[in-house]
């Protein structure tokens, strides 16, 4: 038995260690191409190394260490405390492998990445936030400057927009029913159509072939030819839509503050919850753990998962209604904005405010590299964390034409581009340093062919996550739950349970029997017996765990032993 | 002002010609992949399920013998040939690829009890209850071509008659000697009609013999007096012996760790021993519900296969207490002999129902040539499954094996019995003077004594 326990505890430890790090390290190891140097390369390398040894070597190794840390996904397991030798050996081997693959990944990052990120650096007395978009457009190459444009459609606005995860396709929807899909690579309009009713929100499903639109009465799913595929009546008049990519869940919040989760592969309604906090059109999914956050008019933000009807988290963020909400892709940082003219940055691990900035915004978005875009009226401001310590300050600003009301901001993934949906159409501006420069073909490929898309669709369906995997800390999956000591139920709980049992026993009806066996007296007797039976286990429990401690009991006995006349002194003596 | 924005030209990131492969770019940044663990877990679960779906271990039966198959021998120099001998004295050479008899040897008068092939693969040695040892020429050409002329019978090279019936034979891994087991252990040379050496320790019959793969002069035998004996040919007398509580039916040396051997015991368990330290077993392999009749190691030395009187074949890890795999069919009767193929990917069993059966060593393995991408995928799924194997859903699917009702019941009965025994012992210990009943591990309990 002891052996078994030991094994369990050590396994638990190991799984905790595993818990801190996810990842397909094995795959990484397999697929990293080896670096091939020619002899002259080596010579060159060594010469440089000797020349600058004193100045650079330390710096380089430190930088590499940093990268390795990134790929290790947490600390190694503490193997010293393990008793089980076999397990220890296995884990040591695995840790070794993890270390190797992290190193290989760090090396690959250093040497094999095809492109470098964008940047914007001011010189002299210049300030980055004073640099105009026209100036940037003049400086960057033709391909980059093409991403700066305004589409003016004054009749059907305000527009909202959404990008596919690869950033290749964009869908836009005007409030008055104009919808379009655009291929952003060659700026082709794939399809444009009019539904002639209010469209409140639009969102891509798992790929560019399908998108969902929240319309006046119902939510609809269209394919990319503009054919209506489904009318989702159960969602009601949705105000905001979100799609959980890995779970294939379409989340919506409607006019009555009801949150719906629908599985788009099977059509099953996975969750249907009343938020109970009123109408809201602020909803955002946390990309780190797929938890949906809803901002309410009372200043609270509630976080939901499809498997529980109560919110996971309810936090008071603002005095007054919440107007916008955004999540950083690392999952630790949330930005909220309220009518109280404050923008707050929250640490989601501690649920603490990191930074409060003055300002009002209707929409917000984090870019892949962590830039935060906010908008008021026709003015866009980009904040950036320069120090790496989550201290955001002004980076860039931009004003679109006066009078345009910005409706939606969205960074285009894998590009230095910010898409702006506003009352007179949509625009796109350049924000250097906002996008991830290197894409992974197996995660999101902007140059995907139709064959690759089909392949990926099948694979992503095979890897579809069940809704139970949505939780605040997704790294918990695969770890063993620590055994908690069973807590004694409180006295009130026991009493409530007892009462319930007695009530149930009283209410139980008896079978009608003949020959005087159903006489009122007999029935009463039977009931009494049933009540006694129901009470019995509780009474026994009480008798067993008699609330009195040994010492107290002894005192009482002592008291009883004393003659009655002296009993009143017994307690006093103790008090002294 | 210095400025740069990301700009990707389509030419750089797509293939040049339509015949080229699509270009692939990798970025291993953990931030690009959210919920990695959940995704891996789902993959592990799916891999476990797929493994179950594709678990079709039985490849085919080879029939031809007209009595129970009693022994088999694999040819070290031909991958697809296997010899089998039956209780009616028939010896056959099978081609595993086509599952046909390639050659039929006239055989013995009584049952064939032992078969072995010389290291160069040219000579087959058989022995039987008719007290003869026969040497046969292995028809190399017919193995190579595996033509249909199956009545390719051959004459024995030599017939040596001796004074007692034989139970087993094994050839040296490196050398010209072979050993037979019977009333005594005899060492033979190919060219001598009489044994070059004989050993005896006690009066009981030796029933199995195996040479050590690392040290050619060492062999282990088991005898019907429940002993396992280790002989050294360079010494005049046997080296060491242990006596267990029950008889050992067969012995197999681990080819990769040649100091270790595993004994298939009558009490349903297998015991792995270190031959240098025989006072306790290194590992007890439990799961069979009846006597284990034969055992053979995989050439990798990481697992071994056992055949049992309970009509099942099981595969164990060399250090695992329970079996990794159990194979059974409705028609397979008592299994008398099992062999791992020389490439470690197949298992052959011979049973009472006169058939040889061919099984895959890994039940859900894909046969045929794998593309590199397929292989990588399999490796990845294997790794993911291994990583999440302790989670209840994955564990349940991976562990589940369907068992015939008789075996299932027998196993649960055995479990109840051993549990009762354990409880009784515990209670007895609790009610006697502390230390008077010492606790004894199962690894030691079944050993009576060690003799040198």
UniProtKB/TrEMBL annotation, chain A:
Subcellular localization, as worded in the UniProt entry? Nucleus, Nucleolus
Any one cellular component term from GO for this entry? nucleolus
Q: Give the record's keywords alphabetically.
A: Nucleus, Repeat, rRNA processing, WD repeat
Residue windows of the WD repeats: 315-356
Q: Where is the composition biased (Basic and acidic residues)?
A: 529-549
Per the record's keyword annotation, is Transcription regulation included, yes or no? no
Which part of the chain is the BING4 C-terminal domain? 394-474
Record-linked Gene3D superfamilies: YVTN repeat-like/Quinoprotein amine dehydrogenase (2.130.10.10)
Question: Organism's domain of life?
Answer: Eukaryota
Q: Which InterPro entries match?
A: BING4_C_dom, WD40/YVTN_repeat-like_dom_sf, WD40_repeat_CS, WD40_repeat_dom_sf, WD40_rpt, WDR46/Utp7
> What residue spans carry the Basic residues bias annotation?
9-22, 508-528
Q: Where is this region: Disordered?
A: 1-22, 505-576
What GO terms in the biological process aspect are recorded for it?
A: rRNA processing
Q: Name one Pfam family in it.
A: WD40
* UniProt keyword rRNA processing present: yes
Question: Which residue stretches, if any, does this entry annotate as coiled coil?
Answer: none
Protein known as: Transducin/WD40 repeat-like superfamily protein
Natural source organism: Forsythia ovata
UniProtKB/TrEMBL annotation, chain B:
> Where found in the cell?
Nucleus, Nucleolus
Q: What is its main location?
A: nucleus
Protein keywords: Nucleus, Repeat, Ribonucleoprotein, WD repeat
**Mind telling me which SMART domains this protein's record contains?**
WD40
Q: Which Pfam families match?
A: Sof1, WD40
**First and last residues of every WD repeat:** 62-104, 105-146, 285-326, 328-369
Residue segments, region Disordered: 422-452
Note the InterPro entries from the entry.
Sof1, WD40/YVTN_repeat-like_dom_sf, WD40_PAC1, WD40_repeat_CS, WD40_repeat_dom_sf, WD40_rpt, WD_repeat_DCAF13/WDSOF1
Signal sequence coordinates: none
Residue span(s) of domain Sof1-like protein: 361-447
A cellular component annotation (GO) from this entry: ribonucleoprotein complex
Protein family according to the UniProt entry? Belongs to the WD repeat DCAF13/WDSOF1 family.
Q: What is the protein named?
A: DDB1- and CUL4-associated factor 13
Origin species, per record, is Forsythia ovata
Query: What is the phylogenetic placement of the source species in the record?
Result: Eukaryota, Viridiplantae, Streptophyta, Embryophyta, Tracheophyta
């Amino acid at each position: 038995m002891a052996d078994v326990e030991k094994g369990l505890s050590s396994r638990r430890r190991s799984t905790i260690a595993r818990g801190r790090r996810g990842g397909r390290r094995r795959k990484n190891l397999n697929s990293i191409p080896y670096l091939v140097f020619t002899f002259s390369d080596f010579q060159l390398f060594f010469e440089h190394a000797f020349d600058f040894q004193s100045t650079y070597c330390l710096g380089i190794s430190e930088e590499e260490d940093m990268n390795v840390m990134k790929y290790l996904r947490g600390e190694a397991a503490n193997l010293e405390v393990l008793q089980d030798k076999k397990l220890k050996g296995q884990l040591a081997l695995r840790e070794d492998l993890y270390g190797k693959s992290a190193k290989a990944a760090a090396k690959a990052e250093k040497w094999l990445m095809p492109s470098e990120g964008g940047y914007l650096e001011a010189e002299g007395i210049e300030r980055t936030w004073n640099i105009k978009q026209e100036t940037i457009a003049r400086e960057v190459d033709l391909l980059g400057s093409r991403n700066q444009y305004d589409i003016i459609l004054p009749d059907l606005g305000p527009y909202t927009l959404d990008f596919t995860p690869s950033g290749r396709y964009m869908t836009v929807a005007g409030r008055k029913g104009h919808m379009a899909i655009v291929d952003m690579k060659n700026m082709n309009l794939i399809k444009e159509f009019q539904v002639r009713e209010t469209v409140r929100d639009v969102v891509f499903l798992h790929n560019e072939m399908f998108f969902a639109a929240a319309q006046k009465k119902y939510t609809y799913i269209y394919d990319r030819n503009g054919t209506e595929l489904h009318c989702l009546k159960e969602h009601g008049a949705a105000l905001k839509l979100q799609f959980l990519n890995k779970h294939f869940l379409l989340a919506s919040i409607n006019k009555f503050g009801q949150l719906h989760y629908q599985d788009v592969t099977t059509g099953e309604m996975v969750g249907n919850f009343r938020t109970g906090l009123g109408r809201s059109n602020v909803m955002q999914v946390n990309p780190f753990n797929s938890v949906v956050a809803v901002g309410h008019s009372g200043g609270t933000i509630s976080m939901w998962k499809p498997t529980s009807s109560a919110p996971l988290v309810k936090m008071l963020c603002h005095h007054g209604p919440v107007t916008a909400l955004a999540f950083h892709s690392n999952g630790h940082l949330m930005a909220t904005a309220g009518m109280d003219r404050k923008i707050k940055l929250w640490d989601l691990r501690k649920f603490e405010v990191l930074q409060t900035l003055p300002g009002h915004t209707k929409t917000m978005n984090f870019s892949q590299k962590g830039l935060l875009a906010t908008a008021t009226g026709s003015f866009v401001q980009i904040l950036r964390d320069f120090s790496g310590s989550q201290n955001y300050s002004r980076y860039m600003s931009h004003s679109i034409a006066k009078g345009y009301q910005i409706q939606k901001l969205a960074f285009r993934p894998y590009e230095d581009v910010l898409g702006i949906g506003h009352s007179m159409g949509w625009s796109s501006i350049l924000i250097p340093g906002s996008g991830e420069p290197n894409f992974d073909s197996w995660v999101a490929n902007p140059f995907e062919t139709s064959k690759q898309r089909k392949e990926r669709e099948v694979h992503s369906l095979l890897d579809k996550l069940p809704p139970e995997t949505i939780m605040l800390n997704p790294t918990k999956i695969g770890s063993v739950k620590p055994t908690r000591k069973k807590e004694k139920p409180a006295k009130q709980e026991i009493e409530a349970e007892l009462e319930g049992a007695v009530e149930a026993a009283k209410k139980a009806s008896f079978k009608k029997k003949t020959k005087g066996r159903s006489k009122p007296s007999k029935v009463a007797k039977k009931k009494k017996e049933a009540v006694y039976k129901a009470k019995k286990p509780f009474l026994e429990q009480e008798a067993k765990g008699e609330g009195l401690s040994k010492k107290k009991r002894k005192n009482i006995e002592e008291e009883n032993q004393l003659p009655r006349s002296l009993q009143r002194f017994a307690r006093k003596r103790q008090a002294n | 002002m210095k400025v740069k924005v990301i700009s990707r030209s389509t030419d750089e990131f797509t293939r040049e010609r339509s015949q080229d492969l699509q270009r692939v770019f990798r970025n291993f940044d953990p931030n690009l992949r959210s919920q990695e663990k959940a995704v891996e877990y789902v993959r592990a679960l799916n891999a476990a399920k797929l493994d179950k779906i594709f678990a079709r271990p039985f490849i085919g039966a080879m029939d031809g013998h007209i009595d129970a198959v009693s022994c088999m021998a694999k040819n070290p120099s031909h991958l697809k040939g296997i010899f089998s001998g039956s209780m009616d004295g028939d010896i056959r050479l099978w081609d595993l690829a086509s599952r046909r008899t390639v050659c039929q040897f006239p055989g013995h008068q009584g049952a064939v009890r032992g078969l072995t092939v010389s290291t160069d693969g040219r000579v087959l040695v058989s022995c039987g209850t008719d007290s003869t040892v026969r040497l046969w020429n292995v028809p190399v050409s017919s193995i190579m071509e595996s033509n249909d002329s199956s009545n390719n019978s051959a004459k024995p090279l030599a017939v040596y008659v001796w004074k007692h019936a034989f139970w087993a034979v094994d050839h040296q891994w490196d050398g010209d000697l072979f050993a037979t087991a019977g009333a005594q252990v005899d060492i033979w040379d190919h060219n001598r009609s009489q044994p070059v050496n004989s050993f005896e320790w006690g009066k009981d019959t030796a029933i199995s013999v195996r040479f050590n793969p690392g040290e050619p002069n060492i062999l282990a035998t088991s005898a019907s007096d429940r002993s396992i004996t280790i002989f050294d040919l360079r010494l005049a007398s046997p080296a060491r012996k242990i006596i267990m509580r029950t008889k050992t039916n067969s012995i197999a040396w681990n080819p990769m760790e040649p100091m270790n051997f595993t004994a298939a015991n009558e009490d349903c368990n297998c015991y792995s021993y270190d031959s240098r330290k025989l006072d306790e077993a290194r590992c007890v392999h439990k799961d069979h519900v009846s006597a284990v009749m034969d055992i053979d190691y995989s050439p990798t030395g990481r697992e071994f296969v056992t055949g049992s009187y309970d009509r099942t074949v099981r595969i164990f890890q060399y250090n695992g207490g329970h079996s990794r795999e159990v194979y059974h069919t409705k028609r397979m009767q008592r299994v008398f002999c099992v062999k791992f193929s020389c490439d470690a990917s197949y298992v052959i069993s011979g049973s009472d129902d006169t058939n040889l059966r061919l099984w895959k060593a890994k039940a859900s393995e894909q046969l045929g040539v794998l593309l590199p991408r397929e292989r990588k995928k399999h490796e990845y799924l294997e790794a993911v499954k291994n990583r999440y194997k302790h989670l209840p859903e994955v564990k349940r699917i991976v562990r589940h094996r369907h068992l015939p009702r008789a075996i299932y019941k027998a196993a649960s009965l055995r479990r109840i019995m051993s549990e009762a025994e354990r409880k009784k012992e515990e209670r007895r210990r609790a009610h006697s003077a502390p230390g008077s009943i010492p606790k004894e591990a199962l690894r030691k309990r079944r050993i009576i004594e060690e003799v040198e």
